[in-house]
């Protein structure tokens, strides 16, 4: 057990964490997804638990181990994730670490599409932006923490997401760093708010702990 738990800075707080990829089905055997491992989101959930929070972890398909003592809810699509987040939107803190697909097929076929009958193009539509929805429906005192995965203009793009989505904090990742990214156990991030920016580097577990202690140091 950790030093924290019942007397930690998040004791008595309900924290919702989303993690992992989403899958947007084209047909029963094919989908659009991304390489998110869920490691960073799971690390955020464990760090929040160690600080005393009552954590609900809503996650897409991952192969990593479920954390003990945390309520987990499995989802597949961005739409399912959106519905579960809406069900838990009374949380004191929401951490959107999930790699949500931005697009989903306009139509999901109920049977496997056969290649000789298929059109080679797939029509897509946008998924709901869950973090923006949370930002538009923010509860009193609720803290929203988003992530940003960028391959260029890291700080500029992350700052833009902070404002556009009405988030309180953005954890910005550069996919260009050697020691960070989807499958790695390590990460190097910039943690930004409207008037604060710090760099944190290390194992994902350590980065998660430092992100939350920076945000909740005075609470
Ligand atoms: N996010 C979300 N719903 C979506 C897409 C993203 O809630 N449909 C959240 C992610 O979980 C993350 C944040 O928004 O916390 C930023 O995600 P990112 O993919 O970096 O930004 P986008 O706004 O999708 O912009 P783009 O992919 O074009 O950079
Ligand atoms: Ca995106």
UniProtKB/TrEMBL annotation:
<dbReference type="GO" id="GO:0071513">
    <property type="term" value="C:phosphopantothenoylcysteine decarboxylase complex"/>
</dbReference>
<feature type="binding site">
    <location>
        <position position="147"/>
    </location>
    <ligand>
        <name>CTP</name>
    </ligand>
</feature>
<feature type="binding site">
    <location>
        <position position="102"/>
    </location>
    <ligand>
        <name>CTP</name>
    </ligand>
</feature>
<feature type="binding site">
    <location>
        <position position="112"/>
    </location>
    <ligand>
        <name>CTP</name>
    </ligand>
</feature>
<keyword id="KW-0288">FMN</keyword>
<comment type="function">
    <text>Catalyzes two steps in the biosynthesis of coenzyme A. In the first step cysteine is conjugated to 4'-phosphopantothenate to form 4-phosphopantothenoylcysteine, in the latter compound is decarboxylated to form 4'-phosphopantotheine.</text>
</comment>
<keyword id="KW-0436">Ligase</keyword>
<comment type="similarity">
    <text>In the C-terminal section; belongs to the PPC synthetase family.</text>
</comment>
<dbReference type="GO" id="GO:0004632">
    <property type="term" value="F:phosphopantothenate--cysteine ligase activity"/>
</dbReference>
<dbReference type="GO" id="GO:0010181">
    <property type="term" value="F:FMN binding"/>
</dbReference>
<keyword id="KW-0285">Flavoprotein</keyword>
<dbReference type="GO" id="GO:0046872">
    <property type="term" value="F:metal ion binding"/>
</dbReference>
<feature type="domain" description="DNA/pantothenate metabolism flavoprotein C-terminal">
    <location>
        <begin position="10"/>
        <end position="216"/>
    </location>
</feature>
<feature type="region of interest" description="Phosphopantothenate--cysteine ligase">
    <location>
        <begin position="15"/>
        <end position="219"/>
    </location>
</feature>
<comment type="pathway">
    <text>Cofactor biosynthesis; coenzyme A biosynthesis; CoA from (R)-pantothenate: step 3/5.</text>
</comment>
<feature type="binding site">
    <location>
        <position position="165"/>
    </location>
    <ligand>
        <name>CTP</name>
    </ligand>
</feature>
<comment type="function">
    <text>Catalyzes two sequential steps in the biosynthesis of coenzyme A. In the first step cysteine is conjugated to 4'-phosphopantothenate to form 4-phosphopantothenoylcysteine. In the second step the latter compound is decarboxylated to form 4'-phosphopantotheine.</text>
</comment>
<keyword id="KW-0479">Metal-binding</keyword>
<keyword id="KW-0511">Multifunctional enzyme</keyword>
<comment type="similarity">
    <text>In the N-terminal section; belongs to the HFCD (homo-oligomeric flavin containing Cys decarboxylase) superfamily.</text>
</comment>
<feature type="binding site">
    <location>
        <begin position="128"/>
        <end position="131"/>
    </location>
    <ligand>
        <name>CTP</name>
    </ligand>
</feature>
<dbReference type="GO" id="GO:0004633">
    <property type="term" value="F:phosphopantothenoylcysteine decarboxylase activity"/>
</dbReference>
<keyword id="KW-0210">Decarboxylase</keyword>
<feature type="binding site">
    <location>
        <position position="161"/>
    </location>
    <ligand>
        <name>CTP</name>
    </ligand>
</feature>
<dbReference type="GO" id="GO:0015941">
    <property type="term" value="P:pantothenate catabolic process"/>
</dbReference>
<keyword id="KW-0456">Lyase</keyword>
<keyword id="KW-0460">Magnesium</keyword>
<comment type="pathway">
    <text>Cofactor biosynthesis; coenzyme A biosynthesis; CoA from (R)-pantothenate: step 2/5.</text>
</comment>
<protein>
    <recommendedName>
        <fullName>Coenzyme A biosynthesis bifunctional protein CoaBC</fullName>
        <ecNumber>4.1.1.36</ecNumber>
        <ecNumber>6.3.2.5</ecNumber>
    </recommendedName>
</protein>
<dbReference type="GO" id="GO:0015937">
    <property type="term" value="P:coenzyme A biosynthetic process"/>
</dbReference>
């Amino acid at each position: 057990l950790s030093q924290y738990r019942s007397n930690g800075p998040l004791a008595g707080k309900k924290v919702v964490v989303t993690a992992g990829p989403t899958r947007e089905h084209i047909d029963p055997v094919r989908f659009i997804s991304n390489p998110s491992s869920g490691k960073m989101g799971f690390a955020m959930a464990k760090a929040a638990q160690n600080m005393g929070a009552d954590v609900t972890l809503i996650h897409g398909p991952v192969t990593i181990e479920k954390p003990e003592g945390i309520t987990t809810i499995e989802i597949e699509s961005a739409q399912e994730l959106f519905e579960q987040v809406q069900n838990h939107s009374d949380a004191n803190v929401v951490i959107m670490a999930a790699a949500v697909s931005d697009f989903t097929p306009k139509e999901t076929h109920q049977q496997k599409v056969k290649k000789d009958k298929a059109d080679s193009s797939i029509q897509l539509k946008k998924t709901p932006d869950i973090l923006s929805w949370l930002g538009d429906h923010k509860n009193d005192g609720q803290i929203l923490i988003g992530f940003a995965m960028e391959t260029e203009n890291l700080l500029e793009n992350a700052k833009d997401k902070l404002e556009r989505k009405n988030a309180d904090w953005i954890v910005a990742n550069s996919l260009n760093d050697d020691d960070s990214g989807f499958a790695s156990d390590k990460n190097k991030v910039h943690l930004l708010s409207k008037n604060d920016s710090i760099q944190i580097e290390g194992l994902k577990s350590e980065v998660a702990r430092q992100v939350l202690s920076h945000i909740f140091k005075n609470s």
